[in-house]
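Entry 14. Ran structure prediction on the chain below.
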Amino acid sequence: MAKSSIAIVTDSTADIPLTVVEDLKITVVPAILIIEGRSYIDGEEITREEFYRLLPTLSEPATTAIPPSAAFEKEYRKLFDLGFERILSIHVASQLSGMINSASQAAQAFIDRVHIFDSRQLTMALGFQVMEAAAASLRGESFESVLEILHSTRERVRLIALIDTLEYLKRSGRISWLRASLGDLLQMKLLVSILNGVIERVGIARTKRKGISQLLAHVKTWGPLERLAVLHSAIPDEAALMAENTRHLSTNPPLIVDVTTVIGTHVGPKAIGFAGLCK
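Output, structure tokens:
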């Protein structure tokens, strides 16, 4: 019989560090990256370093795909076979991806034993929700209590990022307001946030230095933080310095997360940002 009766599942866009995934017994279903017609399993078949080295040289833009419902059904079945009674499957915002649709389709095979939860977030703003739910599950909390903690966490997470180049967001075509104002923004650094699953523009800067200043100012408005993560795409030294400079804002030491290639496809290299969990 499993130690906990509730299994926690997410997808690889949660960006949770592998050590945390293992410690909290989280199951991660990987998204799919498509590079020049070839499919790669996110986080397994191509390293992030390789991906960002390739990205500027590609003859056609890299794209992403959601895992098929069969991939979710396989993981759900494994967990039930291990003795879990319920599964809480927590995923990237439904406004940004079809991940929830795929998971929901798989859940139908198990009647009401799998509960699908829309995080309304991305990267570690999703990851923190998953971590809090997994920790509660390991403590032996009831399903209702874990779900209550999850709802509370969703209300308290924050996410903001500074995009170094808009080229990759433009290629993705994911943001309607960006298409309308692209001519005015091409030479700018763009500050974006996610609120209830919607990507919003919260600032622009002519230089990265000014953009970083705006980024830090926004993070400081979040108030006392329980958790903080510095998010980056292939700029580990800058991220480490940022973590050191913001250590005092959070009860727990900041995590440094090189965002998954599936997110990197849309934001491009040299992006940096924060995810936080407010107290």
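The mean pLDDT is 91. Will compare against last week's run tomorrow.
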